[in-house]
Amino acid sequence: MARSFVQWLKGSLANTQTRLLVVLTAAVFLIITAVGMAAYYTSKAVLQEELSEPQHQLLRIGMNSIDEYIREGDQLAVKMALNNEVYQFLTSANQASYRNITELVQFLNTMVNSTAYIKSAYIYDVKRESMVAFPQGFSSSKANFTDSVWTDSIMDEFEDRMMLVKKRSVPSGAAAAGSEITLFRKIMIQGELKGIIAVNFKPGQLFSHMLVPSVSHLDSRRFVLDSSGGTLYELGTFDFGPGAAQAAVKQLNGARLGDFDHGGRRLLATQIKSPVTGWRYLSVVSQNSLLSNTRKIRDAVIAVSIAALVTGAVAIAYYNAAAFRPVRRMRELFSNYDSRQVSTDLKDLERVTGELLTDHAQLSVRLRQTMPEAASKLLADIYAGNLTGQRDISGKWSRYFKDWTGPQLIVVMVSIDDYAAWSRRFALSDHSLLKFAVINIITELFGQGWLVLASDLGRDRMAVLLQPTATDASDNAQNVLAKASEEIFRLLKFQVSAGISVCSGGPVSLRQAMFDAETALGYRLYKGYGQVIHFRELSENSLKGKRLPEAELQARLAEAVEAGIGERALAVLDKLVGKIREEAWQPALAVHYLVSLFAGLKRLRQGREAERDGDDESLFFCTMQLEDAAGYLRSQVEELAACYGRVKESKDFILCGQMIDYMNQHLNDPIGVQEIADHTGISVSLASQLFKQEMNETIHGYFTRLRMERACELLIRTDYKISEIATMVGYQHENSFIRVYRKYKDITPGKYREMMRGRKEALPD
Prior knowledge:
Layout: H1 2-13, H2 16-82, H3 84-91, H4 98-113, E1 118-125, E2 131-134, E3 137-139, H5 154-158, E4 163-170, E5 178-189, E6 192-201, H6 203-206, E7 220-225, E8 231-236, H7 244-252, E9 257-262, E10 265-273, E11 280-286, H8 292-323, H9 328-333, H10 348-384, H11 390-400, E12 410-416, H12 419-425, H13 428-446, E13 450-458, E14 461-468, H14 477-492, E15 496-500, H15 510-522, H16 524-527, E16 532-534, H17 551-562, H18 566-583, H19 587-608, H20 626-648, H21 651-665, H22 673-680, H23 684-695, H24 699-717, H25 722-728, H26 734-745, H27 749-762
Helix pairs in contact: 2-8, 3-4, 10-11, 13-14, 17-18, 17-19, 18-20, 19-20, 21-22, 21-23, 22-23, 24-27
């Protein structure tokens, strides 16, 4: 529809008389509209400014008065904080002293009655959670004081401020149920927060200087809003409905003056913000009556402009109606191809025909451009396992690879060496560009004699599909890739390695070829960076998986790190890495084992400190050579062992060690946290705090875990009954022991003994 209108408009403007009519009509329309709108908005701006100024002055008078009351209330709170009786109440050991409480209540009575706008005052002891208030009196616990709900959240609301004024809810049991406007001030003694003073204002006196609008015939209303947008106070001659104040604040967006629509009315809003309380003072006035005559003038001008525009459009349409009649038949002939309009000039038929041919050519080019992208996605889908059926693969292959007629297909897996270091070296925005450059270099070097298609598989990996077109080209692929690796290092300053598959039998065996190429690429772990490794070079023995070593070495590594003995931990790590190197494990198995070592170190680190930000390095072990992976693990072991070593030298860790020794010595005794804390000579709360801080576990949880581990040993190595083992690990009732054991091990003791003995019998001697 839009395109047809554009064609009609172009055809109309091709005629001189039509262009003259269009220019005159548009000029008249624009002049009339501009004059009318300028007059309207000028009048509107003047009226708004004249109306808003008295409203702004009234708001400022009310704000200054309220701010003055708030300042005086704050000064009164400061006097209370500096009073000697308040100091005695917050610092004395005997807080419930009759003399102190009596004089303190009398002091609050004097302070409250000395001002006409303060209703009551509270003094809250933060640590002992007691309160003294006038007129309520003394309460030894906030739980017994009806109006104490604010004590649970006020600390978070203070943030870095000493004083805070807010509107709060009052429980129904209090004397003044509903809401209060309260000033809160911290009481700091020797730099430490000891208490909070709460001064409750009388709303009637606090807002007594909020004056009604001076122009009585206007519908208006004034609001006082707190920092979160809640309404503290409002008055006026008209209620604009719920949400009017919030809508005004949103529309003003920080400006002093603005107008907006709400509830079917056009409203004018003026605001100021208090520098003392952060409250927003808002005046909202209906401007319907003020602007009614101005809007009539605006509407009349717009009507005249539209009439002029319609007259010109009718004249143009009438003039061109006859001119289009000769070409309508021709336009119908093109209806099967396009529904566009044509002009009265017959040469436009040639243009329309040319556009049709151009569109067809563009569609053909786009189709040819998208074919490589679709073929590249086919490789990625096969690699990811999204396509496994022979029919699906063969069908898409026949559409996207029409030029690939030979039977031989070679898959090359290209990977960026030490991808973790490469990712840190180059910005994320450059990663795709650099990988595109790698693919271009490989494609250019293969050149004549090869069909080449590359696919980005994400992260470090790219797949290159090759098909030789010359008879002697297939044996040259490894040499070309070696040269490409050298060129990439020379031009891009980083290294890549590649694995080459043997020739596959066709598209249905591509996934196996990708697996072979990826297996060959994995031997970069032993051969080093910048290598091109052919799958046929791998011996049959190297392709067989080897059994992982016993978990004993890995457990010894963790024990040495936790003991803070770096040299022993490094020796164990070197032994593990040496075992991998000497036995030449299959790379996938070796990488899996290195990742498990790193995961164990990471769990130890998280037990001592918060998890670090950044990528998970364990994802990049598969792109490292063995020496670099071992070096990275060595640095982690040294750092973590040093950290644990420093911790073990601390006094707190020594106390935790004493508690652990005591637990190990009394696994069969029915002792608890109290006995463990008494053994070290500290309180239960301090012992729990230190143990959680140093061991990242509660005393009860750690003791229970020791008991369960001891129970596992007894279940495997002895024939004691379950009830006897329960007694040996400190449980007087067998059912309690079974319940705790199932919670920690997700299996009952009897099932665990049966399972472990079955495994032991199945192992070869």
